[in-house]
Amino acid sequence: MKVNTAKAAILGIQDIHINAATSSRQSMAEQHDPPSVSPAAKHSWFPTPPPPIYSCTLTPELEAKAREELQEKPEWRLRDVQALRDMILKEQPNLHTRLDDAFLLRFLRARKFDYDRALQLLLNYHAGRRAWPEVFQDLKPSTVKHVLDLGFLTVLPRPDPNGRYILCLRPGKWKPNDYPFVDNVRAIYLTLEKLIQPEETQVNGIVILADYTGVGMSQASNPGPFLAKKVVSILQDGFPIRIKAVNIINEPRIFKGIFAIIKPFLKEKMAERYVLHGSDLRSLHRNLPASVLPEEYGGTAGRLDMGAWSRLLLDCEEEFVVEFCQPDPLEGAMLPDSELYEGEQAGGSVEDTFRSLRSQLYYCY
């Protein structure tokens, strides 16, 4: 009887968290759009997220892929979500995080349904917001409109043959005198948040296409290794997304120096996923077929449209306000020690490394 009473109490707390999160999102949406139409529904090329009350949207083929690659068993899916939810409520009762099925599934899938690793990823996800307030404070699309208008990033409308959406980055469009580098990070993070919503992306992952045309010494040396380490830490260990490949094209000689700064922070598996193509489009097409690429990269999918993704993000403004413009979710939470976001105390040793690498940048340049 005591076990049943305790379980009922946990489930009651869980319902409070879920209902509060759902009602706040619904009330925010109702102020701006008809309840039956979500902002993303205006952009038919991008899949919509699962409904508020979770119902699997995966095709049988994707369910089979998730079973094989992620150890996801459809018959155990909601049981696994409940197990993770129970761990959060027991070990981090003061963590004000979403507890709905769709949200927690992102973390389970990203860590192949290992409960402990999924919980650590969730904690890292929230810890990143506290460790980097200049990125996460007031994070919403309207605050990075200048980045989107400049054409720094977009998402191509057609996924590759493996169902992976392609995040296209153009670092050469950014000039350090225009705005701080962290604005680029903010735009990337908002993009990843939108990309991870559909279950297709959670299973298939994404591909990055980075065009380094126009990148010079000012862009290469501006972020520095401390900032680079934070970006890499978030992408590798603080966000529930699977980056399956990073294709670099039109990289200048200076890229050797840029990669020398980034590589020490990359896990071996991630470092192996970087592919440098130079100006050889045939090499690029062996990794990303011409049928999904715009004409600018030798593809047959029309001209590169930088506006479609920008419009989609801006139309989801209120969604991000609810998600990010709220009180600190870690207020009162006790987090385990982690070197993932170790703060400024690491800056000294990292900057020493940067001094030794700066000469490489100038040599390559």
Secondary-structure element order, N to C: HHHHHHHEEHHEHHEHHEHHHH
Which outline best applies?
globular
Structural class, from helix and strand content? alpha/beta
CATH superfamily of the largest domain, by name, is: CRAL-TRIO lipid binding domain
Percentage of residues in DSSP E strands: 5-15%
- Looking at the overall shape, the CATH architecture of the largest domain is 3-Layer(aba) Sandwich
How many strands, which pairing sense, and closed or not: the largest β-sheet? Answer: 5 strands, mixed
Number of helices: 17
Region (Disordered): 23-44
Pfam family, one: CRAL_TRIO_N
Protein name: CRAL-TRIO domain-containing protein
GO molecular function, one term: phosphatidylinositol bisphosphate binding
Identify the notable features of this structure and list them briefly:
disordered N terminus; 7% strand; single chain; disordered C terminus; 365 residues; 5 strands; alpha/beta; 2 domains; Phosphatidylinositol Transfer Protein Sec14p
List the helices and strands and how they pair.
Layout: H1 2-30, H2 60-70, H3 77-91, H4 101-110, H5 115-131, H6 133-136, H7 145-150, E1 153-155, E2 165-169, H8 182-195, H9 199-204, E3 206-211, H10 217-221, H11 224-237, E4 243-249, H12 255-262, H13 268-271, E5 274-278, H14 281-287, H15 307-315, H16 317-324, H17 347-364
